[in-house]
Amino acid sequence: MKYIIRFFPEITIKSRAVRQQQIKQLKKNIRQIVKEIWEPARVGGCWDLLEVEVGADAPASITTQISDALTCIPGIHHFMEAQEFDLPDQDRICELTLAAVGDSLTGKTFAVRVQRAGVHDFRSIDLERYVGGYLFQHTQNAGVRLKDPEVQVMLQIHHQRLFIVSRRREGMGGYPLGTQENVATLISGGYDSCVATWQMLQRGIYTHFIFFRLGGAAHEEGVKQVAYYLWQRYGRSHRVKFVTVPFEGVVEEILTQVDDALMGVVLKRTMIRCADRIAARLKTTALITGEAISQVSSQTLTNLQVIDRATERLILRPLITTNKQAIVDQAKQIGAAVYAEAIPEYCAVISKRPTTRARLHEIEAQEARMSPAVLADALAEAVYQPITELPADLAARQVAPELLPGSLQFHDRVVVLDVRAPDEVAQAPLSLVDVEVQAMPFYRLHSGFEALDPSREYWLYCDKGVMSQLQARNLQDAGFTNVRVCPAELLRQAG
Q: For this structure, is 46 an active site residue?
């Protein structure tokens, strides 16, 4: 199997030096990710395209993982899964194409598309007609249809090589990570900060994560999980940090020292001031937020201007004119929505009657009432972690005692509720001996749990025990007393 990779179009219009630099970086990023999946894989190519060759001995699961990974690497416009041959004469091209795609044409309309690079003694359209006529005669097709055919037979000719394409997949687009300077994202785990992160990654900017802990351990665990998802899926060619800042003391100081109407703006300015110090330590160029104009009271133009005055560092807001539904739709597209739906936006619950037109001198007067030591303590206690450590960190968290079942033994009333996402369940189904297992993704628990048999006891399960704990807490807070977290050791015994 070989993957033929085409670049994001904007790369191809750069100057020769810039294009070479960006292609070199993309090639490095692809190699980093692909070799983590399959060490024998080879990455080659240069000016026109890149190629990934996995070899005939690669299991189907490996080729699937590599194909999925390529869809999420910034800089790739699209790629094609193909078989490669030395370029033969046209009759042999027909025979090879028939062997590769003939069965797929049964009962369907088709068209042949040829793309060439190099000097040949035939035109692309001539080869399309020749191969198309051959396939029409030698397969049980429903006819040739040049416009909107059911099957497109794609041939790529690159100098003296022939590629017969079995599938084309779209990539993430954008510029390769590492071709721009890095930044730090203020991540809350909600839709906005997740989509803002993804959009910066798509522009070739890799990002560290700064999380201000306002909602306790459950909030922290949920945000770490979504940050890891975004990095692992879209940015794992580069190593970044996840910084946790304990902000409970700062919030308490704001609640006791700042006028109610100004609390939201003061909190945002304090976060920005703190993030600026962290960004300096991480040597990042700018801060990223998920703010959009007028989405909440602190995001009016007047308030944003006052917030920006808290730092001289550049603050980028990629979602600034985007409406909420478009943000939610993009969060679903990139796979982050299922995490964001389960994480409350604690940063939006400060003021009861918030101002929409804060004045800088009034805000500074309120900030002067706060003890500088509170922010200094938060910065001193901030935890800097390589993002690669988050899975182990999350797995090591102990289950709160009130979330554990009373008896650490399965019994007839117990149902293990698998709350993993559907793709995770499909990859590693949970099968237990003499124990009932039901799959219910965590993002459907709130709507689906009430319909379950209330006489049964439901033990929630996920791979790392993070989402199961978060959801068990949420369900117990909603008044359900028949929910617990399934201990990992019991699954090992019953598996």
A: no
